[in-house]
Amino acid sequence: MEIVNYIKKRMLLPVIFIILFALAFIFDTPKEIYTGYLRILQSPSVLISDYIRIGGLGATLFNVATIILFNVILLKKLGFKMSGPIFAGVFTIAGFSFFGKNIFNTLPIYLGIYLYAKTQKLDYKSFIIVVLFSTGISPLVSFMIFGTNWPLYFGIPAGIIAGVIAGFVLPAFSAHTIRFHRGYNLYNVGFALGVLSMLFAVILHSFNIELNVGGPTSEIYHTELVWISLGLSLIFLISAFTLDPKVLKKYPSLMKSSGRLVSDFIRDYGNPVTMLNVAVMGFISVGVLLILGLKVNGPVMGGILTIMGFGAFGKHPRNCIPVMFGAWLGVVLTNYSFDSVGMVLALLFVTAVSPIAGRYGPFIGIIAGFFHILITPLAYAFQGGFDLYNNGFAAGFVAALMIPFLEVIMKDKKVEEIYE
């Protein structure tokens, strides 16, 4: 009974940490993990930096596991109970620790938010959701230190200061950006970070600093990553039925949700139903990739984990499949190609606009997914690769363009409260 209660309260996060930490030492030796992890910490980390190619699979899994552990400890110290946004935040951090986040480049941003809370005489706990998603701009820290060719005595303080500044301004800024897309972009902080990244990119570009330093990806561990993804999904599936054998009967109620911010599935439907949805979203993500013959690398693995995380915070099959289909059409019918890892990521992260399909139906969702594909490459060009949540940046524009017309054309008079 104690184990069941532990699983129910923690949503398996400590278990996931143990699994990934153990797998790191199965795939590589301690020496290989150590040297690979140092390469990860010293990489510029901008989009798209595949940590598996940079440091190896073992070092990458070690990076992911340590990031999970740090944030789980932080949440426990702050006294938080598990919720949909928190679960999504931790899983998003884990996913992007495959391609851009590490403990070194995230801490200055956390510090910046802490300083903001102190100067405003507010409780740091009240910004926990922003904290968890804030590290989408963590490449800014690494790039300033390792990607500019500046001497370390100048680059290190410059990177740390830039990270602290980004973290300091983010809480107030992200609270306003949600009004731009009306809650139909699940990656709201990603949109806010995109605007901040654009500002930093413009400043650096004005000093003739080359920004595009993202490297190639590695698909050599495709099979292993597929099995890890399926294994994690299976663990959530088994846990859901263990906690509630009748969970399948309750699942349709979750899929009636539009997913619009803020949709906390743990709060509204309970842990077992949410775990089932997390598992289903993991299976769908892997299934789509396998059906299309697409390879899993570090960034794509990050996409899978992020979708699973948001299975507790707005995403479900009914609102995600239409926008993914629209994204697929966008690639097939244009000059874009899935040979670009950016397009593969867009196919997964297009689910940021899934609430549009959830609110206005699958046909509108397909259109939203199609537009997302068109906007995503342009969004990357604007923000310079500092915002790991580039699709969240693009999704904000998709929602902002579509929602005003939809509300008028479809006579949408319903007013919903939005909480950040």
Protein architecture, described:
The structure is a single chain. The protein has 420 residues and is an all-alpha fold. The chain has helices spanning 2-10, 13-27, 30-41, 51-55, 57-77, 84-96, 103-119, 128-134, 139-146, 152-181, 188-206, 222-243, 247-255, 265-269, 271-291, 298-309, 317-332, 341-349, 354-360, 362-383, 390-409. The protein has two domains: 2-206, no CATH class; 222-409, no CATH class. Helix content is 71%, strand content 0%. Helix 7 (103-119) packs across helix 9 (139-146). It is globular and about 60 Å long. Residues 415-420 have low confidence and may be disordered.
What characteristic shape results from the CA principal axes?
A: globular
Q: How many individual β-strands?
A: 0
Largest sheet: number of strands, sense, barrel closure? none
**Tally of DSSP helical segments:** 21
Gyration radius, in Å: 20 Å
Strand content: under 5%
Q: Could you report the average pLDDT, rounded to the nearest whole number?
A: 90
Question: Helices, strands, pairings?
Answer:
Layout: H1 2-10, H2 13-27, H3 30-41, H4 51-55, H5 57-77, H6 84-96, H7 103-119, H8 128-134, H9 139-146, H10 152-181, H11 188-206, H12 222-243, H13 247-255, H14 265-269, H15 271-291, H16 298-309, H17 317-332, H18 341-349, H19 354-360, H20 362-383, H21 390-409
Task: Write out key terms for the chains shown.
single chain, 420 residues, mainly alpha, 2 domains, 21 helices, 0% strand, globular, disordered C terminus
